[in-house]
Amino acid sequence: MKILQSKHYQPKKIFNQIYVDNQYQIVAQDLDREVIPSDSPYYNLLNSLFPNVYFDDMVMKKDKLVDFVKCTDYHPVGFDKANRRFYEREVCYFYEKYQLFIVASEDLSNEYDKTIFESGLLRVEHIFYDPRDENSLTNIRDFFNNYLEKYISQESKILLLLKEGQDLVFKHQGIKPYALDLNTMYNDDFLPVHGKIQEGLSKTKKGVVLLHGLAGTGKTNYIKWLTAQIPDKDFIFVPNNMIGELAKPEFMSMLIERKNSVLVLEDCENYIAERVGGGNQTDVVGIILNIADGILSDVLECQFICTFNADLMEIDHALLRRGRLIAEYKFDKLSIDKCHAYLKSVGQNKEVDKTMTLAELTNIDEKEFKTLDDKKVGFGFV
């Protein structure tokens, strides 16, 4: 169908400012002329005509589109450089029974959208409806219940906090978690802690998890694996150089749109150290406390996983308060028995005579290239 030729289109004029003959002039233009140059013409057109309902991570099966009529006013095109193919950037459908328009996004250059597309699904972002129709609420409810479902990736997905120009943005990224066997890759005392972490993150909406210990003991691999165990929550990874951005007001606005998420701060000891004065550390600790267990926790419903290599005693003790702390665990080298169990599980017929980190075990066949002479070399003034 053509929206512009249907009863749903109401011709409108919009005022634009143009620069002609060295001066600005105000001119009236048809709405559809203004929409054409846009990358999202259907959204812009319908947004000027009707109110809409926005969805995040909602999809519908493409085979259900047989009930819909595709709109053909515009054909915005995108290009997937990786696979060298063109695709429709934005699509629009109309459902006569419910008198609803849906606008869907297809961005094959985005790995997250690409996975949805190749799964035979359509990512529905907006429903547009006529508020004069007394059946609008019932129609939207029926459409939601009969057609839409929350998308849960078969692979883990994370959101990465980035900065584009002066703006903070979340970018979807697919990750492939390391296949973990908690029984062989971690010491026995970690199993009950994992149970508490999984239950705390799955069934509650506040609190902090502190994971610390030696580098190479499996902290990051565990978190990546954990994202697949709790698919109903977004895991937001905050790079070390972006942790200071948590105190900015615009970040709070972004979190409101991502309620019930888990924020992951890796190697953040410099930001969560015991507060002994002013500075960025104080701001970040205060924000963590407020989001995880303060006034903002009731609004944002977000939790934190913080990893660090420093001693636990150096960390701000406010994070350790009972009721706020979901779990704390110090990762250490695997016992000799655990090392043997792990090596056997991966088909390695080897034995070790000392405790080792998980990173050392998984790379046990790699040759080391480092200086054997441990004499200290120094420079001084005479």
Structural features, described:
The chain has 382 residues and is α/β, with parallel strands linked by helices. It has helices at residues 31-35, 41-49, 111-118, 136-147, 182-185, 190-203, 219-229, 249-256, 280-293, 297-300, 336-345, 358-362; strands at residues 13-20, 23-30, 52-54, 58-61, 69-70, 77-80, 85-88, 90-95, 100-105, 121-129, 149-150, 156-164, 167-175, 208-213, 235-238, 262-265, 303-308, 325-331. The protein folds into two domains: 3-150, no CATH class; 156-331, Rossmann fold (3-Layer(aba) Sandwich), CATH 3.40.50.300. It has twelve helices and 18 strands. Strands 3, 4, 5, 8, 9, 10 and 11 form a seven-stranded antiparallel sheet that branches. The longest helix has 14 residues, at 190-203. It is elongated. 26% of the residues are buried.
State the shape.
elongated
Distinct helical segment count: 12
- The helix/strand class is alpha/beta
The second-level CATH architecture of the largest domain is 3-Layer(aba) Sandwich
Order of helices and strands: EEHHEEEEEEEHEHEEEHHEHEHEHHEEHH
Count of the domains: 2
According to DSSP, the number of beta strands is 18
Low-pLDDT residue intervals, each spanning 5 or more residues: 375-382
Q: Strand count, sense and closure of the main sheet?
A: 7 strands, antiparallel
> How much of the sequence is in beta strands?
25-35%
Question: What is the CATH topology of the largest domain?
Answer: Rossmann fold
**Between the first and last Cα atoms, what is the distance in angstroms?**
88 Å
Q: Mean pLDDT, rounded to whole units?
A: 82
Oligomer class = single chain
Rg is 27 Å
Helix content: 25-40%
Identify the CATH homologous superfamily of the largest domain: P-loop containing nucleotide triphosphate hydrolases
CATH class of the largest domain: Alpha Beta
